[in-house]
Predict the 3D structure of the following.
Amino acid sequence: MKRSGALVASIGVTALVLVGCSPGEGSTAVEVTVAPSGLPVQGETLTYDPNRLVNDGEVISLDWWLWDGDEVFQAFADAYTELHPNVEISIVNQPWDDYWTKLPLALRDGSGPALFNIHNSHHDNLIGYLEPYDLPLDALAADYLGVDAHLVDGQVHYLDYGLMTGLVYYNADMWARAGLTEDDHPATWDELREVAQRLTVRDGDRLTQAGFSFNSLFREFSLGLPYQEGQHLFAADMVTPDLDNPTMLSVVERFLDLYEVDQVGSKDFGPVADESFGQGQTAMIYTWGHFYGSLLEDYPDIDFGTFRTPVPDTGEEPYAYDRYNGESTTGINAGASAEEIAVAQDFVRFSLTHADLMRDLCLHYSVLPMYTALADDPAIAAHPVLSALGDVDRYIWPGPLPAAFESSVDVMWEDILYNGVEPAAALATAQQTVEREIAHDGFVSRENHYAAYPAER
Amino acid sequence: MIARKAGAVLLHATLLGLGLLTVAPFVWMALSAFKTNAEINSLDQTLLPREWTIENFVNLQETFDILRLFSNSVLLSVTITSIVVYTSALAGFVLVKYEFRGRTAIFAFVLGTMMIPWAVTIIPRYTMFVAVGLQDSYLSLVIPAALSGFGIFMMRQSMGAVPDEVLEAARLDGASETYVFHRIVLPMSVNAISALSIFQFLWVWEDYLWPYLMINSPEKQVLAVGLTTFSGRYGTDYGGLFAATTLSIIPVIVVYVIFQRRFVAGAASAAVKG
Amino acid sequence: MTTIAPSGVPADTAPRRTRRRLHRGERSLRTTVVLLVVGFNAVLLVYPVVSALRGSFHRWNPLNGTYDPIGFENYATLFTDPVFWRTALNTVVFGTVVITLRVAVGLALACAIFARVTRWKTFFRTIFYLPTVTPLVAVAYVWKLAYHPQIGAVDTVLGLDINWLYDSTFALPAIMVMTVWKDFGYAVILFLAGLYAIPEETLEASVVDGCSPAQRFRFITLPLLAPMTVFVVVTSVIAYLQAYVQILVMTGGGPGRSTNLISFLIYEEAFVKYNFGYASAIAFVLFFCTALMTVVSFRLAGGRSLLKAAR
């Protein structure tokens, strides 16, 4: 007992020493007595004047939670704290799933961060905790597209900095090896099937390179492509979900055919298509713009290209190319202290008027900027994803889609591919699940705000 | 006699074979930790790395601050284990050596608590801890773990074996009950304490959901949660994951090897009557 | 080293139900423990259980402040939801198979290590306990990769081409194999402990009586191990009805719903969808089943001796 006790104690002491020795996280902020001067005012209509003291120059520390992109967001924090050294902004980066488990609970219990990034699919859970932006709305609307869509009781709590949607990524080396050139970018789904066949490689019967894979990436295309044929995700009443329809079924079957008829991929080859693409085993995938950043970061060895989502018929403009979603600006915690909120407001204004950082952010996430100052930006125009998207007006937004849509579509596809469920039956189940799960949400679709939305439906 | 020998050889061969099967995943994991990510991701796999690298371990400290998480977990596991062993021993002693009204009811109640799934209590408990402001503090992890039904049960069973004469002899010499407990009963229960220590250390070490919900600051996080965060954020860095997992296993193995001599004898008290 | 007294202490030392003088310090020690046990459990178990029970009769989303009484609606939804029944079935299959294998493998290996002819006992004990002492979260990730159809070790070693975690036939078994591997060491150690506690004389006597090893196992070892078996089974039932980490890490309940387990369903409803009321309702059904199964296990194995054992 004595010996064991001594051992336990020594382990404990070692642990304490280790903890004590770890790098401390002492604040880097220092008190400031003299306001900055002579710095240029930034912004277009909405402006930010850095030549004054924030929080009376006293030291203050803000937490900023996010689930991704800590480096691009760190740049905003660094630029701001350089202007105002009395402010410290600590970024806490947590994976997506963790983030959405913990953030709403933390906000509710008053222990949440002063600043936190928002995804609009969680709009309902967050809106009650958001401090409205303290900004002149006219000026904001002059500089940012789509501000109106974010008005809640005449106030803006967050807005979109960019528009994200889907497109096809291809492995450039495989593309060249198959004898394909840039002229071969498929414009229609039929053309994509042909290209995919040329990109498929087998060793005997064993697939060694998939021409196209959509494993685990079901939700993006399933909830976007029906729009190409004029099929909405909601019935005309804007509240009843409409997943179980012939157009959706044809989209499902088109993708199934890629595996079953064309055999350009397999449900068992690379169970997660974007990973398989990164591992250099899959030639083409369809996913959203954010994958661009992951590719650069996680798979720097992959040389890739992009092209716009194919459409059903050549030469015919689809009703919409795809669904898009807005990437939201940072939220301010209404439960934070008055001082924190004041600094957070100042920081938000600073961020929204900083064109260079905004551009970097949009480039990083491959989103079309909503900041009009960046409309003709050469770097945006040269970006491989953004240049591929084409006309912004041909993308439709159903609103901040409840998470039930995405999770039900995932289950539906797994049932079809792996559990042998008939597509029609799986669609019917998905329809029922979504109906039940959003029954108490009060969600209203924004599809009818789309420019080409039919007058009579 | 020959048949006997053959039997013994066969027995050892089977045990060795199963032992090999048991450690195989560890071997694969440890060896993979020395592979480059390109090799881990490639279509043809070999057991031994074609090109040895320690990059995965080196990067780990930078991206993940594994040392910090590691020491947090060790500190927490040791603290909680010590508390649980002490409270369990004390309660076990009282419940088996003292006769009083309600004793059986309390013991049955303690046994009953073992059956309550975490899922039932976790939501109100979460609300409760946050309401009193214990979020992001280690107290929130220590308090709910301080008393263990399993521990009390185990210590009670084992302390039944301590002969009453020994206690009586000490009492006749004028020893108080606290003296009897600390100086006589505790040392005599060292096997059960070892066993409980191993079980409890392990449970704290791998506990995931509660620390995940309660702790927000990355610098306070525990290793089990850190590992999931790691795979959430660097999900594609398999080499790093292998390295982190390999490292996370070491301390529990150390604790096990320290206590294992007494472990088996102690584990008996879990169910075999004293 | 104290060993566990095999046959109980002499009867005359057992406390009697007679009035006797309290020992010095007994009352304070006793009061401390009773207050500790009662107070701790009242605050950390009884109160949460009662509020969860109340919550299960409400539409309850603490985030937007919803707490509307809806009577038995959560329970009604639950029992008419095919997802719940599928999940319940998965849980039963998972629990039965894993517990059976854990007990069988554990018992067999414990006997093998215990056998007189076996050498390197400590070595085997350590090896077989190794998976048990590793954090589940960590090994679940490692196994997930091992099951990868293209780059995983399992297919490479076995020369197969199976998409283990995505194939509805293999996904649940694959997770069960991982779980058995992770946990059988616990049973080995406990059974070994039980075997060591069997008095030497009992076994020797059987040899003298000419029992074959098989007879000895069937009629002497096995009955003497009964309390330990009950203990292993009961703790396993409690543990496996609550298993969810391997699901969270390895499949997320998929493909479709084919590996969804009850506790994972609760986790998802509560902490992903914030349906706290519905999650509480499922949790109570689980609680009821755990209690039922525990009692049944006790009864089946005559485990009442456990409660009265220590004297």
Summary: The radius of gyration of chain B is 23 Å. Chain B touches chain C through 117 residues (CB under 8 Å). The domain at 55-267 of chain B is CATH 1.10.3720.10 (MetI-like fold). Chain B has a mean pLDDT of 86.
